[in-house]
């Protein structure tokens, strides 16, 4: 009665492209955020989280 069924519902095949797209989007946003934090304009800003975490300003 419980466990695997004879005709299980497919999950990975229809959801796979959305999961991969979400992972790629998260990676690209992370890279863009890191590039913006390390830019010359915000490198020495006291609101910069990199400075608060203990990284040295350039």
TrEMBL record:
GO terms for cellular component: proton-transporting ATP synthase complex. The chain crosses the membrane at residues 12-29. The keyword Membrane applies. Pfam families: ATP-synt_J. It comes from the Eukaryota. GO terms for molecular function: proton-transporting ATP synthase activity, rotational mechanism. Keywords: Membrane, Transmembrane, Transmembrane helix. The keyword Transmembrane applies. This is ATP synthase subunit J, mitochondrial. The lineage of its organism: Eukaryota, Fungi, Fungi incertae sedis, Mucoromycota, Mucoromycotina.
């Amino acid at each position: 009665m419980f466990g695997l069924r004879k005709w299980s519902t497919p999950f990975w095949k229809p959801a796979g492209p959305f999961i991969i797209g979400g992972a790629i989007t998260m990676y690209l946003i992370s890279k863009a955020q890191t590039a913006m934090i390390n830019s010359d304009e915000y490198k020495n800003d006291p609101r910069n989280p990199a400075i608060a975490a203990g990284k040295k300003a350039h």
